Amino acid sequence: MTFLPSPPLPWTRVCSVSDILPGSGVCALVGGVQVAVFRVAGALYATANRDPFTGANVLSRGLTGSDVQGGALRYTVASPLLKHRFDLATGQSLDDPGVRLPVYATRLEGGDVWIGSPI
Q1: Which one of 19, 35, 101, 116 is CB 3.0 to 4.6 Å from 91, fit for a cystine?
Q2: Is the torsion defined by CA of 22, 59, 109, 90 positive or negative?
Q3: What is the mean pLDDT of residues 50-67?
Q4: CB atoms within 10 A of CB 79
Q5: Burial of 88 per CB tally in 10 Å (0-12, 13-18, 19+)
Q6: Looking at the DSSP assignment, which residues form a beta bridge with residue 90?
Q7: CA–CA separation, 109 vs 59, rounded Å?
Q8: Which top-rank group of organisms is this from (predicted)?
Q9: DSSP state for residue 54 in the 8-state scheme
Q10: Helix (H) or strand (E) holding 43
Q11: Where residue 97 falls among pLDDT bands split at 50, 70, 90?
Q12: Per residue in 6-45, pLDDT tens?
C-alpha cells in the first residue's frame, strides 16, 4: 500500500508530554488528519492513526514494544485489532514489507509535544 505525499503541515502543539504515559500513545488531530503520538523509551514518535490493514483509526491504542532485527533495536506498535506491528521510527510494517505508515516529525519544546509534516 502506498500513501500519496501530503502537503507540508505547520508545527502543531498537540499536548503536554506528561499527558502521554510512558510506553503508550494518544491520538491528535493535526491538519485534519488523525495522528498517533507515542512516548516510548524516552523518545516521541508520531505515525498515522489509521491501521492500513483494517482501515480503523486505532493505532494510538496499540501495544508498544521492541524488536531486534539484524542486531538493531527498534520500537514498535501493534495494532489492537489484528496485531500487525509497525516500526515507530519508519512506519514500516514488520509483517508485510509492502505496507508503511506515514510518520511525522516530532519535537519537544518546553514540555509540550509538537507534530510537524510527514517525513
Answers
A1: 101
A2: positive
A3: 97
A4: 21
A5: buried
A6: none
A7: 24
A8: Bacteria
A9: T
A10: strand 43-48
A11: very high
A12: 567 789 999 999 999 999 999 999 999 999 999 999 999 9
